[in-house]
Amino acid sequence: MRVAGLMSGTSLDGIDVAIVEITGRGWSKRVRTLAFRTVPYPERVRQAILSVSNAPAHTGKISRLNFLLGELYAEALIGTARRARIRLDSIELIGSHGQTIFHEGAPVSFLGRKIASTLQIGEAAVLAERTGIPVVADFRPRDIAAGGRGAPLVPYVDYLLFRHPRRGRVLLNIGGIANITAIPPGARPDQVVAFDTGPGNMVVDALARHYTKGRWKFDRDGRLATRGRVNRDLLDRLLRHPYFRQRPPKSAGREQYGREFVEELLATGLPVLDLIATATAFTAAAVALGIERFVRPRMPVDELIVSGGGVHNPRIMAQLAAFLPGVRVASSADYGIHPDAKEAIAFAVLAGETWGRRPANLPSATGARRPVVLGKITW
Q: pTM for this one?
């Protein structure tokens, strides 16, 4: 089955498009990537998304953005297929994660009830209409309805692609948020542990934009972090946050590490380059802390396989290796999966499972009461 996966994450870099061929059945499936491309968001669109993410916003603005993103997703897919010389009508299905503007996986009190909720925008009806291809979207709400946190969902695909009979593997994706999937040697799906470790690139990106007055959207090759000094007192204080003692399943997002968090860092009065160096170390240290507290007691950790934008930051990769001695730290590219494409590939695979009416959440990762079929189909 030929499926396109669309992903736009919390880092707001743009729209990742992967077109894949899925063959086989069950856990013996094989996934071959035919094309991959990232289409950056126009800056005005990026700022508009930021303005409605975890912030009071007019419903009209959210509605317009929802339909606009549907148009942009369609244009990104059509352009990617054209560049790769893949006929659009050869794609049988689209899996679209959408753009998360609010995620609250743990229930909170609301109007006398305990409610968890999540909201992704990027209108599937527009995407289906512009491409003529059925779309699976809105993956997270069904897991929340089943008592889960709606995240992480990628561990299902991590298990499919990376499990090993003899080696303990931890899959790390460093997007806006960093998350891990821990797969013990020879594990069954219900033995997989997965959770968000804390910030990924989100805080560093925001500080880099602040320091460069918007000229840089991220810290290219970790150059800014290299020019700063890690403030140990601040780093230790950040790592004492209760989130890092909370047992999985757990998830994090812009509500913890967005604008307010960055403003608090800037309010310390420390040099911005030192804040960038400290935030970079914070990302790596939080990953290592999560592994030491919640993974190593359950399994050996032989390999850390990294994907997402953070894999291109040599500073983060070096710090991961330093914080996790004896663990092989490598890019997912070394295992045949483009590090920037992995999550788009994942939502193509998850869409295929939805199409076949197969559950595709891992309750051990999300905390759901049971496996459920994810997503909603728009014909």
A: 0.93
